[in-house]
Specification:
single chain; mainly alpha; 4 helices; flat
C-alpha cells in the first residue's frame, strides 16, 4: 500500500490525499483506520531516520539552514531583465512569507 500511496501523492491533489487520511476508506485495506495509522507511523519514522542521517542524531541541534542542510539560491527567470544593481539587492536568510518564521 505504501508504494501505491506515494505514487498517488504525485498524481492526486493534496486536498484529496488529506481527505483520504482524515477518513480512510477501503483503499487502505480491510481495516482502513489501522492501515492509515500504520502508514503514518512508518512515514514519520522514516522521515526522522532520514533527518537523523542528514542532520545528526540529536534533534535538539537540528536547525533549518544548518551546516549540513544548506539552502539553494533560485534566481527568478526574469532577473536578467533588470540591471545589475537590482540583481545585487541583499538576499535574506528568511524563508516563506510569514514575518513570524
Amino acid at each position: 500500500m505504501r508504494g501505491h500511496f506515494i505514487l498517488l501523492s504525485l498524481l492526486i491533489s493534496p486536498k484529496r490525499l488529506i481527505d483520504w487520511i482524515v477518513a480512510p476508506d477501503g483503499r487502505f485495506g480491510v481495516d482502513p483506520l489501522a492501515e492509515r495509522d500504520d502508514l503514518l507511523s512508518k512515514s514519520l519514522s522514516q522521515a526522522v531516520s532520514n533527518l537523523s542521517t542528514r542532520l545528526g542524531p540529536d534533534m535538539n541541534k537540528w536547525r533549518y539552514g544548518q551546516e549540513n542542510y544548506r539552502h539553494v539560491l533560485i534566481r527568478h527567470p526574469l532577473s536578467p531583465a533588470v540591471n545589475a544593481e537590482a540583481r545585487e539587492l541583499p538576499v535574506t536568510d528568511k524563508s516563506g512569507g510569514s514575518p513570524y518564521i
